Amino acid sequence: MCPGCELDYRQQMKTQVSVTSAWFVAALLGGQTVSAADFRALDFGARCDTVTALETARGALPLEQQAPSGYRHAFRDRYLDRDVVVGYACYDGAFFRGAYIFEARDMKDASALYKRLKTRVIRDRGAPSYDFASAKHRRGMAAAGATLRETDTEVAFWSTGQSEAHLSVAEPSGSKGWRVSLSYTDLARAPPEPRVHASRANP
Q1: For 1-32, how does the pLDDT look when each residue is reduced to its tens digit (9 = 90+)?
Q2: Per the domain annotation, does 80 fall within a domain?
Q3: Residue 10 lies in a domain
Q4: Strands 94-104, 82-91: parallel, antiparallel or unpaired by DSSP?
Q5: Phi first, then psi: what are they for 34, rounded to 5°?
Q6: How many structural domains does the chain have?
Q7: What is the pLDDT of residues 160-184, one digit of tens each?
Q8: How many alpha carbons fall within 13 Å on the CB side of residue 126?
Q9: Residue 165 is assigned to a structural domain of this protein
């Protein structure tokens, strides 16, 4: 075999196997494509019982420990050249929220990642519907006598009325370090907010 031919052959076979696996999973799941428009492997409203096969076809690995609060399925993957936990939230078996949850080394790293993600979401969705870094928010907080730290301004929402993107930085808490989260929610399919009993709301 000529020099380099074996390497080329193996690469071609690897690519062919990956493509075949993706098409096989799609066919197995009734023709559903591996790449969806709403969030990675699923469209909003799709059945959540297909997500493990679809994420595995993308190369993600099921999360070993318990999924983050609020998410039924979680996986480990790479996104933006960083390790990330990918979460899927379901209601009545249907997908309504997906999230990227990153761990950051420190506040500086978390802030840099927040700015990078914010730039990407602005490119896709335009300016935030509400931005904690905006002059409006700062004036409101100043009027209330609040002193804002940098992390207090690292929260932004993008709402279209039908769906919402939410980006935020979380400070260390308990055993958890700095985190940056980006979630996408289908507002129409999200579970209803729990109602507070009148006797509790008005003691």
Answers
A1: 444 433 343 344 333 333 334 433 444 444 44
A2: yes
A3: no
A4: antiparallel
A5: -70, -35
A6: 1
A7: 989 999 999 999 999 899 999 999 9
A8: 6
A9: yes
